[in-house]
Structure prediction request, 268 residues.
Amino acid sequence: MQKGLEVAIMHVYPNVEHREYIRHLCSNFKKQFCGAFFSKKLWGAAKTYLPTKHAILLKEISDVIQDAITYLNKNHTQIWSRRKFGTSSKCDYITNNISESFNSWIGVLRYQPVLDLLDAIREKLMERVDKKRMLVKKWNGVLVPIAKNHLNDISKNLGQYEVCRSCDNQDEVKCKGKRWDVYLDERKCSCRVWQFRGLTCIHAATFIAFTRDVNWEKYVDSCYTIKKYKEAYAFEIAPMPGADQWKQQDGDKIYSPIIKRPIGRPKK
Prediction:
């Protein structure tokens, strides 16, 4: 994360869940404990949704070097594993660094003076929001395309799963010696993927197909509906005239900072 940005985000969004970028964590971890074994186990612990599997992977690391777990507990106190994620955001990303994505999006504009930078960002956001509103007009049905594609993909691979029904909304799904319990009315599965992503996991999909319920949309979180997508981009950013048309204001004149040449040879 960019220097200073972490403090700013904590200040602006004090009550939201803050997660740590796993690539940065692994990069710092390798400086202390290098090797493919540690990297594989750490990534596995970050990706898993299950607390039991997470604990097993960390124990395998501690069995080799106990100091590795001590290092993690001391230096990486934020949430970095899916098994600790909250279920309200319906986002399970562990590798998405929003600051780097934003820098890539604005490109060379970030080197502009603050006023020019803010105006350029406003213009880019205005165009982006309008494009999203135009895009959603082409969609049909209840769900956004990414949710539709997900349901279509998992519905093709249900043959290897076996359903042991308990009641109308509860069952066990078995496959290759493993078993998961599914609760349709609560939108819960013991694999925990459904709760975190908001999209039906393959175990829940197996049970839904078994019940012959054709209304799969009701088992997907509302954030994946076209209605919510429209609400997210319903606001409008008003256009602005050029700087030469702005009203002049009285006040202190702001000068550019004095640039001093640093000591040593300039960096390339």
